[in-house]
From TrEMBL:
Protein name per UniProt: SDR family oxidoreductase
A Pfam family it matches: adh_short_C2
Origin: domain of life: Bacteria
Gene3D superfamilies the record matches: NAD(P)-binding Rossmann-like Domain (3.40.50.720)
Family to which the UniProt record says this protein belongs: Belongs to the short-chain dehydrogenases/reductases (SDR) family.
Native species: Stagnihabitans tardus
Sections of the chain in a coiled coil: none
Amino acid sequence: MDLGIRGKRALVTAGSKGLGRGCAEALAAAGVDLVINARGAEALEATARDLAGLGVRVTAVVADITTEVGRQKVLQVAGEVDILVTNAGGPPPGSWENWGREDYLSAIEANMLTPILLMKAVLPGMMARGWGRVVNITSQSVKAPIASLGLSNAARTGLTGFVAGTSRQVAPHGVTINNLLPGIHDTDRALSLDGGVVKARGITMEEARAERMATIPARRYGTASEFGAMCAFLCSQQAGFIVGQNILLDGGATLATL
Ligand code: NAP
């Protein structure tokens, strides 16, 4: 399917690996020029080279997107963008008794304020030009809480509330905002969470993964490329009537009728 976005310009934050990279790849395959960002230069440059191999222009910006300085650096290089995909690392697992004010503030900064401030920066330009697409990578934890990821549950639900209202305010100007909610996907993040289970329970990585897969009706982890394909579709011309939605990509893991 031709997504109708060839020649558009996208900013994908936290895009050197995993789900962010999956989104950047799918947009590049649709002919979208990219600005991608991450903290680590090596993986970012390697990803930028791979994406440029798909025939689009790619600019890499090394920065911590969860800091004001990092966001300003990225936004300055990005300039006018038609598409914004917001992403950042997820908060660490743990338990409510051990989290203090600083832990909550870090999670809110990374997974709520960062996407909000990035949207605030690019939405006026999109609205003035009469076209824009925003996709925020959040988590299945906004539909059904994952207790050990309470920091994520809290911060991302705040973002979800913001998007619910704001998406309706910008839609009259041809701009859509939607959230993609990943369940378990085969990325470094999943590997690190599985590693925590291995350590805590003294089981092997294969056992930890098998246990987790058994909880997913699709009986496997998702892939970054499947995730990226849905992201690119939400950024397409065809998706212009999809506004303020939360789309779960979890292999059926969240047991809910709606
Ligand atoms: P990942 O494989 O660990 O990749 C994270 C990417 O983000 C890397 O490119 C990393 O590069 C970059 N990044 C991390 N922190 C950053 C920062 N402060 N500034 C700029 N770039 C940053 O993670 P993932 O699995 O793709 O997860 C992406 C998001 O989806 C996370 O928020 C995660 O919590 C959420 N999520 C993932 C899953 C899953 O199963 N994978 C499920 C639910 C939710 P650098 O480290 O070099 O910066």
